[in-house]
Amino acid sequence: MSALSAYLTDPFLHDLYTQIRQAGPVRSISLDLTHECNLRCTGCYYFAEGMDAMVDTGTNLDQEFARFVQREKERGTNFITIVGGEPSLRLDRLKVIYDNFKMNVATNGLVRIPYEGFEEMPLGVAVWGDHETDANLRGTGKRDLFRIALANYKDDARAFFYYTVAPGKSAEIEKVVRQCVENGNKVLFNYYCDLSHLGGAYDYHAGFGKVRAEIDRMIELYPQHILTTAYFNQVITSGRLYDQRWGYEVCTNVSTNFPYNQQRLENGNPYNPHFRAYNADFNSTRRCCTGIHRSCDSCFDAWEHFSWIMVNMKKHLGSKEEFTRWLTSMYMFYYINRLLLQQPEAGIVARIHALLQAMPTPA
Q: pTM higher than 0.90 for the full model?
């Protein structure tokens, strides 16, 4: 009996694995739906690297978009992460993507994406700290964007808050999470990269040790509402996956048609062979989801780290505990993005957290 077959004699693990297999493989891309935004958040990778300038506004973008959709359907794409720009400003394009692909959208929460016509759309709603911190970083201190987002997505089962937390802001985590939970939403954590060089509490060089510990505590307090597992939290905040150290040489979400990436694709580390990160001209691609020239040391993006774990299944076959960490990471990705074919059992997120908490902490 192979190690995998032995691990799958566990009924719960077998059930998780079966659900993933039934849903099928993910052939994913990232798409900037628009180059326009109604905010200028301090530290936003999109504007920090001038990605909005990659659009020739003299072209007919709606025609290019229609051609893009057809090309990606023919190429076999079945999942699109929608970013930008602010996708809620182009509901017409968003509807086309929703009707043709499985997808997830990242939104700043300022404009509510309606329920009608988008009933099964997973929504990651941005928040970057408590009301004051979030307002200062995303609203120049003038608007309480967190309050607006809470009102827009109260009790909306599609929406989870995508909470980007800075290294020195761990004391804010509990009150932010509590408000999200009381609002009827779940929480997935992201980690602030300080591309605007604010320093101090925002400097990622200080490390995320306190943040990691506080997120783990949130898992204990709100196990059904936290979409970040303790293992995923450790991988992102430590930047380590077995013998690999996070960086460009191991990042798995790099555009496979981008010439700069050729050496990366040939270095022996696994990658997502279908992936492309499309700019808002719907033709050109860039190095990766969130970067053109920036150092990968500053990348703590949750989606890219999900992929890093997911494509490294073989590294996790050394023990049942290791396989469980991989499988639950994979399952959470499918769960968050509504890729599972059957309705998950009630309390599945809490059950996954309990299973991981009962295991020894990985080295």
A: yes
